[in-house]
Amino acid sequence: MTMDQTPPSSRPPLAGKVVIVVGASAGIGADTARVLAADGAALMLVARTEEPLAALTKELTSAGHDVAYTTGDVSDAASVAGFVDATVARFGRLDGAFNNAAMGQSGRLDAVPEEDFDRIMTVNVKGTWLSVREEVRVMERQGYGAIVNVSSIGGLRGSSGMGAYQATKHAVIGLTRTAAHDFGPLGIRVNVLAPGPIETPMLDQLRLAVPGGVEARIAATPLRKVGTGPEVGATVAFLLSDRASHISGAVLPVDGGFSA
C-alpha cells in the first residue's frame, strides 16, 4: 500500500472520514449531505422514505462521492441500532454523525392534542437520544468521534404558537450538553446547532401556519435574510472536522444574528 502523499493542507477537510446523516431526505439534511460529500466524507444517508434517499445517493455517487443509504426511523430503538450497524458494515467505522431528523408543530400549547405532543417528543427528543446512544456505542470502541445534533433558535427562547416544538428543542440542547460531559472522556465531541429560519419545506409549513411570521423574523435578523441549507451544512462540516478538535458542548446559532 502506498502512503497518501497529498499535503494535509490541500486535502478536503473531511477526507477519510465516515459520517452518518440522519434525516437526509430533504431540506437541511440533504443540503448538508452535499456539503459533507464535497468536503471528502464517505456518507451513510438515513431517513424513513427510500425514494428521496435513493435519488440523493445517485446524485452524489454520480459526482464521484462514496455514498450509501438505508431507511430508518429514529423513534424505534431497533431501527436506530440497525442503521448504525449498517454504516459500520458498509464502511468499517463511524467517525461523525449529524442527527437532523425532526418534525415540526404549530398551535397554542393548550390546543396541542396529546398524541401530537407525544409524537413530537418521541421523534425530536427520544430520536436524538437513541441516535446518540447508538453512535456512541461504535465511537467508544474506536476511542474517537464527533456528533452534531440539531436544535433551533426556538430552543434558546420562547415564543407563541410553537410550544411543543420549542420544548423539544430546549431538550435537545440539554441532552447535547450532558452528552458532551458524558462522552468527552471517551474522545467523543458532541455539539448542537440552533438554526434560525432556513429555506426548507418546514419553513414553508411555518409560512402557512403563522402568516407574516417568517417576514417578522427576517426583519428582526441583523443580516436581513433567511439562511440556506448549504450554510448550515458548512457549519456541520466544520464541527465534524479536526479543525473543531477542541469544541464540545457548544450551542451554535446559525441564524444571521437573530439571537445576538
TrEMBL record:
Keywords: NAD, Oxidoreductase. The keyword Nucleus does not apply. Residues 17-201 form the Ketoreductase domain. InterPro entries: KR_dom (IPR057326), NAD(P)-bd_dom_sf (IPR036291), SDR_fam (IPR002347). GO terms for molecular function: oxidoreductase activity. SUPFAM superfamilies: NAD(P)-binding Rossmann-fold domains. It holds the Pfam family adh_short_C2. It comes from the Bacteria. Belongs to the short-chain dehydrogenases/reductases (SDR) family. This is 2,5-dichloro-2,5-cyclohexadiene-1,4-diol dehydrogenase. It comes from Streptomyces aurantiacus.
